[in-house]
Amino acid sequence: MLEMKIERLAEQIVRHHLLGQGRKKEALYLNFDLRLSSNRFDQSRGLHLLYHQIPDCASVSVFSAMTLSPFGRIGEITSWEHDVSHDSCWRDIGIFHPSILRWPN
């Protein structure tokens, strides 16, 4: 069975599609369907991530947002949270860790 951590998958997508190819007015958009389940509840949310790299700059900025529906679209997001703008930190921002996720009500 193939197993891969979601944060490593996101890192590889960003490395392949963004690093060294940054564009001034474009960002790489990733959307994940997150589900938390237990004996007492089952919830699903959408995690939206924007990765942006300014041309000729080593740093990557990461912005995140959560939606009530995992099928929420980028146009439905009213505010983004800036998570990091640093060359090495974007790989390990911890956004996929359950204790860090900001679940909207």
Structure description:
It is a single chain. With 105 residues, this protein is mainly β. It has one domain. The chain has a 4-stranded antiparallel β-sheet with strand order 1-2-3-4, covered by helices on one side. The longest helix has 12 residues. The radius of gyration is 14 Å and the shape is globular.
Quick overview of this protein structure:
The chain has one helix at 6-17, and strands at residues 28-37, 42-52, 60-67, 81-86.
Features:
105 residues; mainly beta; four-stranded antiparallel β-sheet
Strand order of the largest sheet: 1-2-3-4
Structural category = mainly beta
Strand content: 25-35%
Structural domains: how many? 1
End-to-end separation in angstroms reads: 36 Å
Question: SSE order, as H and E?
Answer: HEEEE
Largest sheet: 4 strands, antiparallel
Share of helical residues: 10-25%
User: Low-confidence parts lasting 5 or more residues at pLDDT below 50?
Assistant: none
The whole-angstrom Rg is: 14 Å
Question: SSE layout and pairings?
Answer:
Elements: H1 6-17, E1 28-37, E2 42-52, E3 60-67, E4 81-86
